[in-house]
Amino acid sequence: MKTSIDISYYPLNEEYKAPIKKFIKALEENENITVKSNRMSTQVFGQFDEVMEAVTKCIKNAFELPNSIFVLKIINMDRE
């Protein structure tokens, strides 16, 4: 099943740009998903299991930074 996820990441510290860029780069390293970013959010597209695995792993790594917030919208279709 195809899925699309819209992700907004809010690291709650003064140096917020570097963690966001690191998160997006980590997502982009996965060859099995498509990642598109803009100023408001990052969209991830692909097969459900592959997308969820990549997103879960990247969020877990980002949570090493204290006080991080993620907002996700998950759709069970390819909205690419």
TrEMBL record:
Residues 6-74 form the Thiamine-binding protein domain. Pfam families: Thiamine_BP. This is Thiamine-binding protein domain-containing protein. The lineage of its organism: Bacteria, Pseudomonadati, Bacteroidota, Bacteroidia, Bacteroidales.
